[in-house]
Inverse folding.
């Protein structure tokens, strides 16, 4: 999920890896044969798609999507020696409890699902150009892979619902930004009309000495009632977090965000 904030250490690491890989491939291409150059170009396309895919993930919030306390349950410590000797991860991994590891709500808040799936399809297309179209046809007999596929199948409906809510949230955010901009312009206009003569701008310029503006002078005080709301932060049963509530003077802080 692309963010306007400064990149996290993980994002910086990913950027360095992808940039270094791209530079290495570009330095290799001119010195190779035509076949090598073609292969390098295909690998560069893969690197670019990987970078685009990772941009759909908010790495700052990613740790919130994983319950670290459940991680030890995925590894069968008694099976580690056999797994290393037999080169079989199924002996040491037990992914049947993977559902306990993933916090789905936080996962949906971390990944832009629609963009992720789109970039994933494009990445698969680029990988097929490198390893061939049949490389993804084999499902294999790995128990770990089977558990992952089962988990994905179980959360598909939830992911679809979350993706729809994400798209609705994007649309609402665009409309709200327009309202915030209009509110800001209105307040600037309001303040510009309060600078006339009279009682600090409240008394209008008029030949009628008893005329007084019905518009209250000055903005409302920043009292508790304008800073606190009892409306719940999130919508019950929603798959993704709602946009921050705007009330009282809070629209100013929202407007100042990048």
């Amino acid at each position: 999920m692309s963010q306007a904030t400064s990149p996290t250490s993980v994002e910086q690491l990913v950027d360095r890896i992808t940039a270094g890989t791209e530079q290495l491939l570009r330095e290799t291409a001119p010195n190779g044969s035509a076949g090598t150059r073609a292969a390098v170009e295909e690998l560069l396309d893969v690197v670019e798609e990987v970078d685009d895919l990772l941009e759909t993930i908010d790495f700052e919030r990613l740790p919130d999507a994983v319950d670290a306390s459940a991680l030890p349950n995925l590894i069968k410590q008694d099976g580690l020696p056999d797994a290393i000797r037999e080169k079989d991860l199924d002996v040491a991994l037990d992914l049947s409890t993977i559902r306990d590891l993933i916090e789905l709500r936080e996962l949906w808040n971390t990944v832009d699902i629609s963009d992720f799936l789109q970039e994933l399809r494009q990445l698969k297309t680029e990988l097929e150009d490198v390893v061939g179209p049949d490389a993804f046809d084999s499902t294999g007999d790995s128990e770990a892979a089977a558990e992952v596929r089962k988990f994905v199948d179980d959360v598909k409906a939830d992911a679809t619902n979350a993706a729809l809510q994400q798209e609705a949230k994007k649309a609402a955010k665009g409309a709200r930004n327009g309202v915030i901009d209009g509110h800001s312009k209105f307040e600037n206009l309001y303040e510009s009309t309060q600078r006339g003569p009279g009682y600090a701008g409240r008394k209008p310029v008029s030949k009628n000495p008893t005329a007084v503006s019905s518009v209250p002078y000055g903005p409302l005080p920043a009292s508790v009632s304008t800073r606190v709301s009892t409306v719940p932060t999130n919508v019950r049963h929603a798959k993704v977090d709602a946009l921050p509530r705007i009330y009282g003077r809070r629209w100013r802080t929202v407007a100042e965000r990048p």
